[in-house]
Amino acid sequence: MLPPLFLGLDLSTQQLKASIIDEAENLLYEEYIHFDSDLPHHGTQNGAHYGDREGEVTCPVVVWLEAMDVLFDRLTEKHSVDFGRVLAVSGAAQQHGSVYWNAKGVEVLGKLDKSKGLVDQLEGGFSLEQAPLWMDSSTTKECRELEEAVGGAQNLADRTGSRAYERFTASQIKRLYDYDRSTYDKTSRISLISSFVASLFLGKVAPIEIADASGMNLMDIISGNWDLELLKLCGGDELKEKIGEQPVGGGTNLGTVAKWWVERYGFNEDCIVAPFTGDNPSSIVSLSSPGDAILSLGTSTTLLVSIPPSPDPPLCTTNSHMLAHPTAPGGHIAMLCYKNGDLARKSVKDQHYGGSWEQFDQSIKSTSSGNDGYLRFYFPMKEIIPDGVIGEFGFKAAGKLVEGEGGEFKPSYSRAICETQLLSIKSRLHRILPHSIGHLHRCIVTGGASANETILHLVADVLDLPVYVAATSASATIGGGLLAQFAWWKATKEGKKDKTFEEMREEVGATKSLKKVLDPRKHESEIYDAILPVYEECEDKIIEICKSK
Ligand SMILES: Nc1ncnc2c1ncn2[C@@H]1O[C@H](COP(=O)(O)OP(=O)(O)O)[C@@H](O)[C@H]1O
Ligand SMILES: O=C(CO)[C@@H](O)[C@H](O)COP(=O)(O)O
User: Fold this and answer.
1) For the chain, how big is the Rg over CA atoms in Å?
2) Whose CA is nearest to atom 15 of ligand 1?
3) Domain Carbohydrate kinase FGGY C-terminal: where (predicted)?
4) Are 202 and 185 in contact (CB under 8 A)?
5) Are 415 and 363 in contact (CB under 8 A)?
6) Is there an atom of ligand 1 within 6 Å of 451 CB?
7) How far is the CA of 295 from the centre of ligand 1 (A)?
């Protein structure tokens, strides 16, 4: 019999990616479906629709169904993947977004017909055709109401790991419950995007995974169970039923793939489905050890630090997130998340460098650290950190606002956007680290922009950390493959049921194949240390300006 394979998926903001690995984590197949370019008839812009309500950002569920159909056709036709060798599947998805199944959808999911694709059968199976995404910021009112109901933002953070955020699922559900009750009532089950994809494999609505559940403002961050009072506040008594069973850990065996996968694509009928997690927790699974910072430069920018289990309660702040760890019970992940990451850099590249990353990079290379004393901030979308700021702002390093939105600016635009994005992380990094971590040893960079060595140089110098990358920038899909392998290993190997993820990695002899790319340069890092207070002063001014708008 040929050795087993493990399938990991990542349904991220702009694309659906798949990786197939073997037991030693060798990457055998990789494929992706880019929503805008592969499925242009849905009219997504960077994977999203921007709606009529202020801050409304969604994606039609049918885009993801079609991406699944096309992806598996491609894996079969282009790569001739033998799915009979795939013994477990898991994966990840952009966090926080939610999918609303109606009764018909749940019913059809349980009896998929092998002669038809997912779109043909499941279109019309959702009470909300447009799923709210992590970029949505339309639920500020619901957020403040939720915080008020539990005695303030810090209380909610202590309880769920985060204060109320617009993109988190609680406020999204509350908006539906408060303003669109008939749609809410037509909703039989609510999935996260991650558990929605797991449901497609399972042929029934899958439970929500614990790390992704901690991005909802609905789960008790200490116990890992649903907070019943919060459920009721957001969606009445009936929300408990719609959300389903308690969150489950990464690597849980949820059952085997639905018959449809066996009959249509030749999946092994024993192929295990393990819970899908969020893309950021999945990157932690594939890349991180405590003491590492992970910088994910995907559509969003996130900074993640894995925190080992501790008897002390996790450090929950109103400016950062605390997530449950997907594979270490009692462990956590501290996270910063920025909305204006890749899309803001891309717009600078298109506006000033003719759409060329080479020219974007060249402008950084031909200027020096600190950009001749200028700082320029880009927030084309309402930002998460600092909360609610929007616009473009340029400053002299002395903290003097040289122009407001738009206006003339001489030094390098590309250096400016990368420096201010990274200085924001530098100014917050120490505040999210618990004492148990002490200090960080290295920064592992992943996501699309980790392919850009010029940006990696800035990361090393600004954060003053050695920079590492993995063999592929698609760390979330590899994390999915590893979660699949973990579920299979525990379920099928004698005596492994209660073993840990690390024990599995040790047994199969897998090491994280990380490559050191750069060390920070002392002189350059000192320049950024010196700029930091000025950066913070400028950021405070922007917050004031935006408040008074
Ligand atoms: N050389 C580069 N420099 C900077 N960014 C890049 C480069 N190459 C690709 N990217 C960015 O990577 C992004 C995709 O990253 P990815 O991690 O796949 O996103 P997501 O997972 O959120 O869909 C693209 O939108 C693109 O702008
Ligand atoms: O909202 C968050 C994390 O809180 C985002 O990081 C999403 O999870 C989207 O991920 P990418 O598609 O940008 O990787």
Assistant:
1) 23
2) 448
3) 295-488
4) no
5) yes
6) yes
7) 13
How many angstroms does the Cα of residue 148 sit away from the middle of ligand 1? 38
207-257: per-residue pLDDT in tens? 999 999 999 999 999 999 999 999 999 999 999 999 999 999 999 999 999
Domain residue extents for the chain: 342-426+522-548
How far the first Cα of the chain sits from its last, in Å, is 67
What is the model's pLDDT at position 400? 54
Q: Tell me the per-residue pLDDT of 422-479, one tens digit each, with 9 for 90 and over.
A: 999 999 998 888 877 878 999 999 999 999 999 999 999 999 999 999 988 899 999 9
Q: What's the predicted TM-score (pTM) here?
A: 0.96
Atom 24 of ligand 1, residue of closest alpha carbon: 448
CATH number of 342-426+522-548: 3.30.420.40
11 lines ligand 1 (CB under 6 A): no
CA dihedral 83, 87, 93, 97 (to 10 degrees): 100
Which residue among 300, 338, 382, 425 has the greatest number of ligand 2 atoms within 8 angstroms of its CB, and so is best to mutate?
A: 300
Ligand 2 site residues (CB inside 6 A) read 12-13, 94-96, 134, 167, 215, 278-280, 298-300, 302, 337
Q: What SS3 state is found at 546?
A: helix
Both tokens assigned to 395: 């400053």
Q: In the numeric block, which tokens belong to residue 51?
A: 């709606």
